[in-house]
Amino acid sequence: MRTSTRRPRPAADDAALVDRIGSRLKQARLAAGLTQQQVAGDRYTKAYVSALENGLVRPSMTALSFFGAQLGIAPSRLIGDETPAWSRLEADVHLAAGRWAEAVDAYTNLLDAPADPGTRAELLRGRAEGHARLDAPLPAAADAAEAIRLFKAAGRDADSALATYWLAYAQHKQDNVEEARSLLREVLERVRSGLSVEPDFNVRLLLALSAIESMDGDHGKALAYLQEVRALEGELDDRRRATYLYDLAYAYRETGDLEAAIRTGLQSLALYRVSGAEFEMGAQENNLALAFLANGNVARASELAAAARSRFEGLHDERWLAHVQDTVAQIAIAEGHLEDALAMTAQAIATAERTQNHRARMSAIVTRARVLLAMGDEAGATSGFEQAAGLARELGPRGLLRDILSQWADVLARSGQHEKAYALTREALAAG
């Protein structure tokens, strides 16, 4: 549904600002070679864009963020450096509401102005979270690291701990598992030693450590952290409980308890739906699709994968879309549609390479190898496993390397290459 074009006319005291924004919007649109309808997209109307360009209405920050994305520029460029900066409250509200792009732009605007070290650290930490949520780990890590330095210099230990959490998050996003684990364990020890933090921060640390251990293939440790969370379950809000169940479902699936994975996964999905957490719903739908696929329910797996694919396409999240494309390819294998599976793995690999999603790329290469094996191309399949294993040895994580080596060893054993299969099995055990 498109947004109505009925807006209050700007008051006299901000008419000049509205005129400048309208002028910049028009200049950016013409420079991009777009019509007013193209800039409006499917959210606004041509008439609304025209009214903005002519200074007849005052735009919201949400509208400016949308038009900035349509034009490929930061919303702050439409406002201009000489205009008043977005308020700190507005930046924090964007962050709390999950409007990550708007939050990053708002914090950037505020950081352009002089600020004392403590305030600058708070702004950097907020922007670090926004970058991390937007799957931009490099700027997130840079912001978080500077925030940590400033907080430590000011003796603000609790604030430093939260900034460290986002630095660990950024490292995790880059598959730097050991660094992320080390940072989170350090903070957890400080909390257990009496560091005063927000009530839910301990839960966030435990959930993050559980996710890291699952990613690294140590599902026993992941479940141990989740058992600690279970003791605090009654204190969790719906969003945190959904995350707890999400991690629990993932650990159950990886350890082979598919019924438990499906049961807890569906509970998590329902809670995310109540919270309106679109991204998390898509991730859980994909995980549930894999659980149903492993449990033999291909139709349900296909339904959930289609929902996840549609959701991430709507969110323009290509990084997670690569995972879903790989899931769709695995479903096509189960359905016997090998040509479709081969085409989908090509899409998944291309998407993963474009977004530098190493884990999705390795998984899709393995899926392609499975397709080639089913087609009788044993040499192509072996080459695929070798490529995926090489990437996993270089980039990690260990859990994925172990899985790739185990599958490759099975292929070699079935073809009679028992000595090579044995060597890979030994390497897989060492990786675990």
Helix-strand layout with pairing:
Layout (H helix, E strand, L loop, with lengths): L14 H18 L3 H5 L5 H8 L7 H11 L3 H5 L8 H9 L3 H12 L5 H17 L3 H17 L3 H17 L3 H16 L8 H15 L3 H12 L7 H17 L3 H18 L2 H17 L3 H18 L2 H18 L2 H17 L3 H17 L3 H18 L2 H17 L3 H14 L1
Helix pairs in contact: 6-7, 6-8, 7-8, 8-9, 8-10, 9-10, 10-11, 10-12, 11-12, 12-13, 12-14, 13-14, 14-15, 14-16, 15-16, 16-17, 16-18, 17-18, 18-19, 18-20, 19-20, 20-21, 21-22, 22-23
Provide a concise account of the structure shown.
The chain is mainly alpha-helical. Helices cover 77% and strands 0% of the residues. Among the domains are: 12-82, lambda repressor-like DNA-binding domains (434 Repressor (Amino-terminal Domain)); 85-197, Tetratricopeptide repeat domain (Serine Threonine Protein Phosphatase 5, Tetratricopeptide repeat, Alpha Horseshoe), CATH 1.25.40.10; 206-316, Serine Threonine Protein Phosphatase 5, Tetratricopeptide repeat, CATH 1.25.40.
Question: What are the main properties of this structure?
Answer:
single chain, 432 residues, mainly alpha, 434 Repressor (Amino-terminal Domain), Serine Threonine Protein Phosphatase 5, Tetratricopeptide repeat, disordered N terminus
